[in-house]
């Protein structure tokens, strides 16, 4: 464990943080601040994305069951918004001080450019699956860079990281929350969670999307409303809290501590990576949507970064900082529960337990889908996916009753390696995302609803077969 922790500290402190920041700044410059200048356009697209629209390309699916752009958005959001938004932010504040919150905001604004590029590429290079579109880094690495081995390495890393390690952690967190709040035995929790998870994941991406489009927005809105209530009742504390965040953000000790604190939970380590932008996970969901232009899903997925960090993570931060218990010596979920208990009453800790269950469950089914998509890329044998589903169910059960310190540490390493693979790929393929963005903006200026065809970027036309027909 000592050796593994040293490797993790080196990867996330000296490599990943700088790499993600530099990449985000580069993409922000190259896209002329897409996350800022098209912020209103993102909302317009999201509001009209509730239904999938069958296109000529959609009808070529063996059994057409396309999902909407909004459903793809909430599947990716389910993975982003997990137990880390409640417990991970608390750890960041406990270890890094209030200034850690400021750097989370910085990462969200800069890293959202990474999210735009990777999700646009996922749409551009997506393929037709058995029942829906599929894609992601493995596919754009293969089709865009022409490297099968590179693509397989990424696919293996994300399958192990999300399908097994992270789902074990989510199950364990749910189990602990229910045991602490309601005294429910871990074995009982594991059995029920496994059964429900299997029922959902066996239904495929359509069922996963339907479940997540209900649970994720509902729990996120309720949690944010609770935070607003806390802020409203302590409104006189708000200037002090904002001052505390800014002042602590620029002290040397606080900055170092904040970097360490933000890199703990949220599926991997939070750090500059609280929103998964650039990691390579959300493009797997982004590729499934039926849209008329790759940039549409790129823009919508960019909103997921803001939703995760600016809304949900900030909700936790304000709850803790307004309560004044951030330096009480508690950390993780205990700190969040103590803060809510102080502000709202003991009953609020039960709400946190329920929120943990909902956020954790939706993360499990979304994480599973990421693994399945990449497993299908590795092998076309139809027996592989049913076996994988059963193994994931077993992992959820084991995770509910086990101590997972070692799994967390190993997952952090595989996540870092996975991110390195994806960042390298999108840096090499980013120019295609820039062309898509320019084409989208040009058509919008002409008063059109943008439509993309494979001939738009002729050099990769043969690799973008899902766009070989005009999608009206």
Q: Summarize the main sheet.
A: 2 strands, antiparallel
- What's the pLDDT, averaged over the residues? 78
Q: Give me the Rg, rounded.
A: 21 Å
Distance between the termini: 55 Å
Name the poorly predicted regions.
254-273
Q: Level of helix content?
A: over 70%
- Tally of helical segments: 18
Overall outline: globular
| Spatial ordering of strands, largest sheet | 1-2
Task: Report the β-strand fraction as a percent range.
Answer: under 5%
Helix-strand topology string: HHHHHHEEHHHHHHHHHHHH
Helices and strands: which structural class? mainly alpha
Written description of the protein model:
The chain is mostly helical and 472 residues long. It is built from 18 helices and two strands. It has a two-stranded antiparallel ribbon. Residues 254-273 have low confidence and may be disordered.
Topology of helices and strands:
Blueprint lengths: L1 H29 L3 H4 L1 H9 L21 H12 L6 H10 L2 H26 L2 E2 L4 E2 L2 H9 L2 H35 L3 H16 L2 H30 L4 H12 L2 H10 L20 H5 L7 H30 L8 H12 L3 H32 L5 H18 L3 H41 L27
Antiparallel strand pairs: 1-2
Short description:
The protein is mostly helical. It contains 18 helices and two strands.
């Amino acid at each position: 464990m000592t050796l593994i922790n040293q490797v993790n500290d080196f990867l996330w402190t000296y490599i990943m943080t700088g790499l993600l920041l530099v990449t985000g700044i580069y993409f922000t410059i190259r896209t002329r601040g897409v996350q800022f200048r098209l912020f209103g356009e993102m909302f317009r697209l999201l509001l009209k994305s509730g239904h999938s629209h069958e296109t000529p390309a959609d009808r070529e699916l063996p059994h057409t069951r396309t999902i909407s752009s909004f459903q793809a958005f909430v599947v990716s959001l389910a993975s982003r918004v997990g137990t880390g938004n409640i417990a991970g932010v608390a750890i960041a504040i406990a270890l890094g001080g209030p200034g850690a919150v400021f750097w989370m905001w910085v990462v969200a604004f800069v890293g959202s450019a990474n999210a735009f590029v990777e999700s646009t590429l996922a749409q551009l290079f997506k393929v037709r699956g058995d029942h829906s579109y599929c894609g992601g880094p493995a596919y754009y690495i293969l089709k865009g860079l022409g490297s099968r081995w590179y693509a397989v390495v990424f696919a293996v890393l994300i399958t192990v990281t999300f399908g097994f390690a992270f789902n074990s952690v989510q199950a364990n967190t749910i189990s602990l929350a229910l045991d602490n709040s309601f005294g429910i035995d871990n074995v009982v929790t594991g059995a029920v969670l496994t059964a429900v998870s299997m029922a959902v994941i066996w239904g495929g991406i359509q069922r996963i999307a339907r479940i997540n489009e209900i649970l994720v927005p509902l729990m996120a809105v309720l949690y944010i409303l609770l935070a607003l209530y806390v802020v409203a009742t302590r409104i006189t504390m708000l200037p002090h809290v904002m001052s505390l965040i800014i002042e602590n953000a620029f002290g040397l000790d606080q900055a170092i501590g904040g970097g360490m604190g933000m890199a703990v939970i949220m599926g991997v380590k939070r750090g500059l990576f609280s929103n998964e932008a650039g990691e390579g996970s959300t493009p797997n969901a982004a590729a499934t949507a039926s849209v008329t232009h790759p940039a549409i899903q790129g823009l919508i997925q960019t909103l997921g970064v803001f939703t995760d960090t600016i809304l949900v993570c900030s909700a936790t931060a304000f709850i803790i900082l307004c309560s004044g218990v951030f330096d009480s010596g508690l950390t993780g979920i205990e700190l969040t529960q103590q803060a809510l208990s102080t502000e709202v009453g003991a009953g609020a800790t039960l709400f946190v337990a329920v929120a943990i269950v909902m956020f954790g469950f939706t993360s499990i089914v979304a994480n599973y889908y990421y693994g399945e998509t990449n497993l299908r890329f590795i092998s076309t044998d139809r027996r592989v996916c049913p076996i994988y589903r059963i193994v994931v169910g077993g992992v959820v059960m084991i995770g509910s009753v086990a101590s997972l310190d070692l799994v967390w540490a190993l997952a952090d390493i595989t996540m870092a390696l996975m991110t390195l693979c994806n960042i390298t790929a999108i840096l090499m393929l980013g120019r295609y995302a820039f062309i898509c963005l320019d084409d989208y903006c040009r058509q919008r200026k002409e008063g059109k609803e943008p439509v993309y065809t494979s001939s738009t970027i002729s050099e990769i036309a043969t690799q973008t077969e899902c766009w070989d027909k005009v999608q009206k």
